[in-house]
Known about the structure:
- The chain is mainly alpha-helical.
- The protein has 2 domains: 1-46; 48-81, no CATH class.
- It has helices spanning 2-8, 14-40, 69-80, and strands spanning 53-56, 62-65.
- The chain has a two-stranded antiparallel ribbon with strand order 1-2.
- Strand 1 (53-56) and strand 2 form a beta hairpin.
- The longest helix is centred in the middle third of the chain and has 27 residues, at 14-40.
Amino acid sequence: MLAVCNAATPQASPGDRLIKALTGSNLWIRTVLLAERYAARPHRAPVYRAERATMVFDNECRIILDPDRDARLLLTPLVTG
Length: 81
């Protein structure tokens, strides 16, 4: 992980790289633990919903349910084999 930080920020001091690595890993671990706690709770809203709601940002923002359904159904067998 430190090698990635060194390559990403070659001008940073060793102390800055260490702080960045420790902060990033700490935030990632906390995010995963929180997600696992929510997933373990019964009767919660599902993480994935079948209607594939998509937010469209245009002159007027709106939510469209599964806007590319036909293309997705056509291409899924090609992608999944």
